[in-house]
Amino acid sequence: MSYKFEIENLNAWFGSKHVLKNISMKIREKAVTAIIGPSGCGKTTLIRCINRMHEIVPGARVSGKVLFNGIDIYAEDVDPVQIRRKMGMVFQKPNPFPMMSIYDNVAAGLKLNGVRDRKRLSEVVERSLEMAILWDEVKDDLNKSGVSLSGGQQQRLCIARALAVEPEVMLMDEPASALDPIATAKLEVLIRMLAKDYTVVIVTHNMQQAARVADFTAFLYLGELIEYGPTKALFENPENELTEKYITGQFG
Amino acid sequence: MDNYSVRKVIDRSMRIFAYLALIVALIPLFSIIGEVLLKGASSVNINFLTQPSPTVGEAGGGVANAIQGTLITVGLASLIGVPLGIISGIFLSEYSEAKISSPIRFFNDVLSGFPSIVVGIFGYALIVRAVGFSVTAAAFALAILMLPIVTRTTEEAMKLVPATVREAAIALGVPRWKTIVTVVLSGAKKGISTGILLAVARIAGESAPILVTMGYWRWWFAGLNQPVASLTLNIYIFAISPFENWQALAWGSALVLVMLILGINIIVRVATREKYK
Amino acid sequence: MSRLIDIGLEQLASVVFRMGEMAYKTVSLSLDSYIEGTNALPQIQEMSETLIVMADEAEDKAFELIARFQPVASDLRILKSYMKITYDFERYGRYAFDVSQVQRASGGLEQCESWISESIREMSEKVLSMVHTSIASLKSHDVELARTLSETENQVDGMYFRYLDRLVEKAPATNKCTISSVLVARYLERIADHATYVGESIIYLATGEKVTLR
Fold this sequence. Notes:
The complex is a heterotrimer of chains A (252), B (277) and C (214). With 252 residues, chain A is of the alpha/beta class. Chain A has helices spanning 43-50, 80-85, 102-112, 118-131, 135-138, 151-164, 181-194, 207-213, 231-236, 241-247, and strands spanning 3-14, 17-28, 32-36, 60-68, 71-72, 87-90, 169-173, 199-203, 216-221, 224-230. In chain A, helix 3 (102-112) packs parallel to helix 6 (151-164), helix 4 (118-131) packs across helix 6 (151-164) and helix 6 (151-164) packs parallel to helix 7. The mean pLDDT of chain A is 93. By secondary structure, chain C is mainly α. Chain C has one domain (4-207): Phosphate transport system protein phou homolog 2, domain 2 (Methane Monooxygenase Hydroxylase, Chain G, domain 1). In chain C, helix 1 runs antiparallel to helix 4. The mean pLDDT of chain C is 93.
């Protein structure tokens, strides 16, 4: 078991608002790590610092180190675009490209990076849709518009799109928030399957989801990392009283 | 009467009133089109469309050169105004946090309200004094007139593309400029083309700037440093003339102009329709 | 802040506490009946059966809470502990029943030699106090009190084995007294064991630590 990420003293700001305070944690590879905490605790900011999406917002600032495969992604000479190619991201609300077909959506990442070979694109599209457990449902009409699918299907389409560029990591920001319970259940099964080959980091406000899906869970509160450890231990016998209060629903 | 019946009556009468208002609002449009069709249809024949303007006393004649001239003028103006407008619109939308954006937006809005004759005179001062009355000068003035429209509608269309689309592309590792030029732009296609359309329609119907930068021209296209004929000026010149055949030409020109604008409309709508269900 | 699950937890707790009180009464009554030689079997039987019903009720309630509320952390530990504790309380009742069966079959201590009576009385008092302690520490989730059960269990064990040694040493005639006292001593020792299990569950519930008090 090795660490895909080593986060050291990560701090993040939105203007003068100090959103993440001295976060240090190591994220295991090929496992699911969940980040939980009440609204506004900084969990989305944390995940966006991992693929350098936080800094594109005007006024956003980051300090500290994030070692990815041993290399600090915030070092001077590192190209954020290259970093983002290695990490797939899935958002709270499914966001397939609206004017593109299913095929074009999945192929978008590759096409935009210059891949033209039709054969290769088709192979990648099929493989990605299969990994995202969507192939069987859409294989008959890949030219349908991406936004004509149901919410759960759209989210899996976004996952396929992210997988198509062959990332090493999948970052998911509350991926099931906008989905109904059945779609959520399917998504959770998919997440467990993805963990066999990818490092998955998932932000969720649903503690039960973290309990079901994650190998490791981190609890954030007001920008600080309160507790971080194997899910079983954290949910059965948390070390920190604040964690205990949060997961038993005693926060007012 | 109880409350419910009263409400039903009010509802029905408001609805009737709304329909009537709609009809009244559409009357000018349809009556203009109707009048133009009526008066102009008789003039439009193959001769009309293929022969240049007649001289004084000459019978027959057509507006072929005016059609050519209008197309060239509008085309040239678009060549200048559209790319400039789109780029400005993209900048204002995607980099709106830059300090220079607010002033640019403000001046753009001011420009869109400028009287067209003033822009014409500006074109006169700049181009005509250097090159002479010419289609270049006219195109220049028209480009300035179309610029604010294209800029503003491009900016609005780009802004309408949801931020989530940009985020998705950036998360895929697509550089920002590429995201804007591929994903966001194609999402704004429809809005931008509508904007271009509006702008083209506006300048195709301008007459004042053309008057001070080109003037009336009776012949075919004769070079960029020369004027060309124009449908709008034709309407003006021919309509106030004492010759009957010229007046008929005026109506015919009006009809052709209206058809031209309608044609552009249809082409753009068809080209930007949703390709997927 | 009160939560939905709190209502259920309170209901469950009240069943468990009532079970504890009932179990104490049952044990106390049956030990008295043996020591004094009075027949309390029908009563004890009824009480024991009530305890079984209450244990079922508690178990159902706990499962309902798990299904509906997906409890975690301290809530989950409470449920796990309560379920174990209700089993231990049911066992108290069961052994009490066994003691009064022995009494009914072989008579009580009133006909026995004094050294036998003394030993059993001593053990009974100790064990009854352990039962009391187990219930008291449950009510207040008192970890320190629960830990004391370790010491008393040791003492009870000591008394038990010493009694057995004395029996071997003195080798009295094998009569009702000998047999019944050995059986009752055995039951007392088992009750003591279950009291320590209750203590262990209380410590787990409060601290998450899994300990052995024996």
